[in-house]
Structure prediction request, 119 residues.
Amino acid sequence: MLQYLRENRERDIITGHTYIGPHLDDFQCILSHDIQSNSYLSRGENKTILIGLKFILIEFIERSSKKETILLLDDLFSELDAEHITSLLIRAGNRQLFITTQNIPSFLIDTGEFSFYEI
Prediction:
């Protein structure tokens, strides 16, 4: 992957898009009897499963490397309700967290626990 990124860096800069990486992953989970989650569950439910798996991976990496992680989450709040957003932020614990979003949920602004920067 690193070699591909190096070889295609100029094209990516010109187009403003990277054509390889985890942002292009197509996540599918088989629930049972060949039922795929994306045809049965809502987008929010699928996103919740994916985020849960990412947290398992993060905890594995932290235990293995004995280093803390910084979480970079793009468009986190779309498709998640307040309960799932709160649960995710609790799960993030004391990790440093950067989130990009189009809309900040008002209940997060009201807590005073977060810093927001508009670009």
